[in-house]
Amino acid sequence: MMWIYKKVKIIFIIILLLNVTSCFELELENPNTVSEASFWKSENDLFQGVIAAYDALQLGGLYAGNIPVILTGLSDDGTGESTNEYYAPFRFKIFNSNIYLSEVMWIHFYAMIGRSYQVIDRAVLIEGEYVKNIEAEAKFLVALSYYNLVAIYGENIAYVDRIQEASDFPERAEEGELYGLMQTLLTEAIPELKLASEYSEADYGRVTKGAAQALLAKVYMQQQNFEDAEPLLKDIINSNEYELLPAYADNFYENNGINKEAIFVINFLHDGPATESNRTTRHQGFSPREKLGTYGDVQPTQFVYESFLTELDIDGNPDPRLDVTLFHPGSTELFIGEPYSWWESRFRNSEINTGYFKYSEQQFIENFATEFDGGTDFILIRYADVLLLYAEALNENGQMSEAYAYVDLVRQRANMEPLSIAKPSLDKDSFLEQLKHERVVELSGEVTRFFDLKRWGMYNASNVERDPNFETFVNGRSDVQPIPQSELDLNKNLIQNPGY
Amino acid sequence: MKNILLLVLNMMMLFNQAFSQRMISGKVTSADGNELPGVNVILKGTNSGTISDILGDYTLNIPEEGGVLEFTYIGFQKKEIDIGSKSVINISLNEDLTELQEIVVIGYGSQRKSDITGAVAIVDTDQLKKNYSSSITDQLQGRVAGVSVTTSGKPGSIGDINIRGASFFGGNNPLYVIDGILTGDNPNLNPSDVASIQILKDASASAIYGSRAANGVIIITTKKGVKGAPKINFNSTVGMQRIPSRIDLKNNYQWAEIVNAAHDNAGAPRVSGANEDFNENVNTDWQSEIFDNTALTYNINLAISAGGDNSNVYFSVNKFSQDGAIKGPQFDRITARLNSEFKLSKKITIGQHLTVGNNTTNGTAGASDGDIISPFSAAFEMLPVIPIYDTTQISGYGIGQIGKAQTWSENPLGVMDLYKNFSENSSFLGDIYIKYQILKGLDYRLSIGLNGSFTNFKGYNQAGQIRMSTIHFSGLTESRNENFALFIENRISYEKSFGKHNFSLMGALTEQKGREKLLASTSVGGYDNETNFWQLSNSTGSISSSGLEMQSAIRSYLGRLNYNFDQKYFISAALRNDGSSKFALENRWSIFPSVSGGWALSQENFFNIQFIDNLKLRAGYGIVGNASLGDYEYTTNIYRTATGSDIYNPGVNYNLGPTSASVIGATRSDMLRNADISWEELRESNLGIDLEILNGQLFFTGDYYKGQVNKILAQVPLPGTVGAITRSSPSINAVSLQRKGWEAAISYRKQAGIFQYAITANVSHTENVITELNYGLTELVGTDISSKTTARLGYSVGKFYLLDYQGIYTAEDIAGLPSDFTVQGETPQVGDAKYKDTNGRNENGFLTGVPDGKISRDDDRIITGSPIPNLIYGFNIDLSYKIFDCSIFVQGISGRDVYNTYYSLMTTEDFGHFTNYPDDYDPYINGQGTDPRPHFFQGHGNNLESTKFLENGAYLRLKNFQIGANIPQKMMENLRLYVSGQNVLTFTNYKGLDPEFEGGSVFTPGLDPRAYPSVRTFILGLDITF
Questions:
Q1: What are the chain B neighbours of A291 within 8 Å (beta carbons)?
Q2: Which domain-ending residue is among B227, B242, B263?
Q3: B483 to each of B218, B427, B549, B631, B669, how far by Cα in Å?
Q4: First CA to last CA across chain A, in angstroms?
Q5: Domain boundary residue among B179, B199, B227?
Q6: Given CB 3.0 to 4.6 Å as the disulfide criterion, which of A27, A412, B349, B642 pairs with B435?
């Protein structure tokens, strides 16, 4: 037995040695994904970063879903009687400020800002041919976010101008501070950005110099600064980069081509996976009432419909933009598979007999029994908008006579008589009134009216003439939305807007 | 004269001893195979004797001619053996009735129960086996003071267990130690293989497991072979199971009346299904369609135990099968075990434990398959006016229809027919060890263990329509999960006594590494309805795949000192240093110390209370840890995935170019991480008393504890300004809470001739209160307006957060209201829900605490109710008379409120969605009724979360009874037949399906998740040993 005992002893020592030397490593690298600390090294990393910032545009809380519905509902070109609590803001009846849609919208705009600053703050550390352009694109997206946030929530919102960490609880912005930030970012971005024609076709959709100029002009104009806006708009027009499409309707149809009228466009894709979020659901809120696949949250106001009826085109027919914009008593097409006669008795709101037809994604309805997603690109800044803004700036700057030509470009495309012939002798005020009308018939349903009303000082209770929902509008309170309660709860540096 | 003779004889023996001696040796074990150290071995009638060592071995010089050996050991029955010519005598001792003397496994060693100074529960495993379940965890329900188990009737399910309440937010599962292998998951064990269970409840007892012990430790030791000829035990049970409870619901006429009123009150057009399309012949009772089913279950167990002088072996094989009490899922399990041990030499022993198992679950699980509804919810969300089958629908199942009878619920029978799930898990768990006695009292032990689990899942469904407005694609998902851990433990222990000083010392180095791999593939669409070959390769649709790999490692150094003086004064101190790969380098290591002491008062000379056999006081303090987080969670990752879940939480990509080619983007993950995170810790004091009176017939043990749980990792919500698209909620050590409670267990056993009985009872109470919320937090949940619970400073976790319901408005109430009084923005009417106005807001949006004449769903909620039971108790009686025996086990909880989600679902209208209604729902219609006016709009004041749905959730349940007989016969050692019933009777006021439920999360302990209820089971059993 002794020999066994001795052998075992030796084996024991070996085991012990093995044991002591086989310590498991406690510092383990994550084999699944790269960490933030080891990313952001190359120009390509930066490019991927700005793609993520663009991707925020397609979030459900922004242009893939909520923004068109909410901003239309909040202005007088759309009204909603939805029983859904989410849409209570349309009726300016806020009984708690934690409305889910508003919260998501807030979070998603700040997500676009956060993703953009990941690019902006790191661009200074990375060298490369395109770094400056990428950085400028990100700056545009920050400015675009604040342009919306300020219009929706007012200037009393969180001031974020860099990458945020978990320990950051940003202060609220001082008055004017956010406009200053937008102006700085865009002014810095414009010289670094390519013209639309300088990008390759595969880059269609990226921020161009023209887009940044247009946005900066809008930022100025929202502050009644028409002097600084005018040269920017003029520059866009003179760049010869953009032109009006011959057919108005082609702007709202997915034809998979480059649209020379689109100054800034969000590319949606119908047949990609829903989880990629490159489809849109914005149309679901715009039907006359809920039907399979749609929710009927917002309908055009009677005012929009009537605006089209005020003037016939050159051939004595109704304004051709009416059929494109609205589903109305004269519509001959089917809407989600049903004729107007079917819808007529089903409008949610008996005062209203039209629905938004623009962006209703008719081409993508395959099956009337189920929900469907849209894929039509959303033109956020359209050349026609820029032309009308330029006319407005010229008028404000006392150059009304020059302004006519730009309005006429827009009118003529729609087969309307030139304004210079129809209404040749307008004064400054009546010219502005005419522009207001032109913008309604040209741009309704494209989320411009909300900003227009604010710019014209018209966002108040008097809109009740055009939109019955404004009956409960409280001047001095309802002109901005309440800051989501959850954000106030989580950041003690913020305070609620007055009156909520 | 006699005395003189004896004296002479004695002297002769002494003489013999001195001059003609030989050696006798052997091993002393307990009946269940544990080595017994410290047993007195005396040559009868002499002073010659010895004590068995730590391995139970003894050697003794005896006279050549032999004699009688007398083995005595406190707590065991004395045994005498005639030596004859034998030179080796191995013996097993039977336990005495007295409980205090058991040997108890306390982690990295064992101790006599009488020496224990912490709160350690020793579980009566014989009693456990009477509870029919595949899981040892479920069997613990109601048996141990301070251990709360909630079970479900879902086949193969494993109950939710927590020890001394739920204190952490990321899981409160205790640590399981199975034959020395540590695992956080519930072990896949055959309960019949379990020899003993010890539960370390307080921090001083569990601190030897350091960073993983804060939720308590359950130490499970499996059986060993017993010396002697092979013994074969065969046990077979067969039973029937059924869901016992129903909720009485309205019929089709009553449904239509309420639905019409809901629309009228909202000014919305009525739906046709309650009017022109109403069919009086359609009155579906969905509950009976789903629940009226009886399921078969059986369990077959074969165990063989054998042992010789130098080896022993235990072998078992088990088959457990349980059909669903509703159609699908069905559970089957096969496990086998081999435990063996060989003594190579006097000093060296090698051995192993191994169990292998295979589980399969087939059929639709229902509750956990994404969009597919749980049948236990669908039974109430489907409408009586919808037929089960409807040939006008695409798939032939009755479904909701817009404008007619709207419900978004899936047809549950359609789900059961079209959706198939199969999951299979194979596992092994075992170790190989070697023990080496370096010197007497000094032992070294090395063990290497493996724990592996491999899961395959496959789920598929045909295309079709089983839900309003939704045509679903066909689909197939397959996943593989490979989970594997390796353990190495080196332990050295030393025992020594000097006079009345008894020491034992233990030190160990342990290491563990784990790896997990996940692979999943999903095909959406791609199968026609005739397909019988559900394979990914056959799909014509798009297939997406994902894969992940996780690794972790823990290294630990630990030591313990036990000391007692004369079995009167006891002290135990332990220290463990743990390092984990889950934390950044700066926070990786932490030390967990503990100390405890005991005083056996009854051993003192001055103690002279006759009827008290033993009285011991115990006190302990310890710091233990926990880590509720996954691997690599201290670094923020870059998110570069193209696809996500939906447009609110998508992947990162954007389409550039006119043809919209997708480009993948990169951004920091929404899951921001925090490199500062470190261990969560529990600092707990425990005071205990053990009392044994009436000659060991009555035993009482009680413990009081108070602890501070610090640095609890909570998902702290960050402001949206941080830049995440979903609310970023990194894990941060942000919360502290205090927990305290008490536990008491009493047992009384009595033998009166052939009649024996034993009564055991236990009761416990636990409570917690949040004492610190850092990081600017005021509440952890409850920010969302639909949250029904909250966690706030000064309150316990998961308190209800609801509007205070006060009945319905009468005409007088309305007349007395100020004219601008509103409920959710609208002026209330007669019959509307009346809530207490508790709060308001100032111009900056801050809550003032002053009523403002406006009832708001958000602001007027109050913190109320007690979702955590005040008392948890269990009570058991065992009786035996001649060959018959009987046991009755009652278990329950009291002092607990629950939110009846069945009633809230059914009586508060959702947008565009009806349900059925409970039979006792009496809405205010046409001037009659006691419940609020039905109103179709979501968010309307009558449809809010309120105290209306809080109910008393106490229950008392006849959990189990068993009546058996040991049939006298001569063919085999034992033949036993028994009948048993489980969940036989329940006494409760709760109106939902089952008062016993797991609340979903630590924050929602009182919300009924409408999951699989308990099933009633009746069983016939046969048990044979030969």
A1: 402
A2: B227
A3: 21, 9, 10, 14, 25
A4: 91
A5: B227
A6: B349
CB contact set of B666 (below 8 Å; sequence gap of 6+): A39, A45, A48, A49, A51, A52, B638, B639, B640, B652
Same domain, B132 and B43: no
Residues B148 and B83 placed together within one structural domain of the fold: no
Q: Are residues B121 and B203 in the same domain?
A: yes
B309 to chain A, any CB pair closer than 8 A? The answer is no
By C-alpha distance, the chain B residue nearest A95 is: B825
Indicate the number of domains in chain B: 2
Q: Measured between CA atoms, how close is B730 to chain A, in angstroms?
A: 8
Whole-number pLDDT of residue B82:
82
Distance CA B711, CA B687 (A): 24
CB proximity A55 to B under 8 Å: yes
Tokens of B934: 């039905």
Q: Is A325 helix (H, G, I), strand (E, B) or coil?
A: helix
| B contact test, residue of A42, A54, A55, A115 with most B CBs within 10 A | A55
> What is the C-alpha end-to-end distance of chain B, expressed in Å?
52
**CATH number of B110's domain:** 2.170.130.10
- Looking at the fold, whether B76 and B141 belong to one and the same domain comes out as no
Instruction: Kindly report, residue by residue over A34-53, the tens digit of the pLDDT.
Output: 999 889 999 999 999 999 99
Closest residue on chain A to B580 (Cα):
A26
Identify which of A26, A205, A290 has the shortest CB distance to residue B656.
A205
* H or E element, residue B612: strand B612-626
Count of pairs with CB atoms under 8 A, one residue in A, one in B: 330
- DSSP-based three-state secondary structure for A384: helix
Q: Which residue in the set A98, A108, A369 is minimally distant from B858, CB to CB?
A: A98
Reported as a single tens digit per residue, the pLDDT across A407-426 is: 999 999 999 999 989 998 89
Domain membership of residue B178 as a residue range: 103-227
B566 is a domain residue: no
Residue B160 lies in a domain: yes
Structural domain contains residue B82: yes
A159: nearest CA partner in chain B: B721
* Residue B129 sits in the same domain as residue B220: yes
Q: Is A58 on the interface with B (CB under 8 A)?
A: yes
Q: B44 and B121 share a domain? A: no
Identify the bridge partners of residue B899 per DSSP, sorted by sequence position. B950, B1007
Distance from CA of B860 to the nearest CA of A (A): 11
Q: Do A201 and B488 touch (CB under 8 A)?
A: no
Say which residues have a Cβ less than 8 Å from residue B456's Cβ, sequence separation at least 6: B422, B423, B424, B425, B478, B479, B480
Does residue A493 belong to the interface with chain B, where contact is any CB pair within 8 Å? no
Contact of B444 with B433, CB cutoff 8 Å: no
Q: Cα–Cα distance between B7 and A465 in angstroms, integer?
A: 126
Q: Touching check for B913 and chain A: CB below 8 Å?
A: no
Q: Phi and psi for B333 in degrees, rounded to 5?
A: -140, 135
What letter would DSSP give residue B896? -
Q: With a cut of 0.85, is the ipTM above it?
A: yes
Among chain B residues, CA nearest to A281: B647
Write the class of the CATH domain A42-192+461-500: mainly alpha
Express each pLDDT in B595-623 by its tens digit.
Answer: 999 999 998 989 888 888 899 999 999 99
Reading the block at residue A322, the tokens are: 């009416």
A344-393 per-position pLDDT tens digit:
776 666 677 788 888 887 777 765 545 567 778 899 999 999 999 999 99
Asked if residue B42 belongs to a domain, the reply is yes
Using a CB–CB cutoff of 8 Å, tell me whether A30 touches chain B. yes
State whether B652 and A371 contact (CB < 8 Å).
no
Do B168 and B212 share a domain, yes or no? yes
pTM reported for the whole predicted model = 0.83
Tokens of A81: 């009687």
Q: Identify whether residues B186 and B76 lie together within a single domain.
A: no
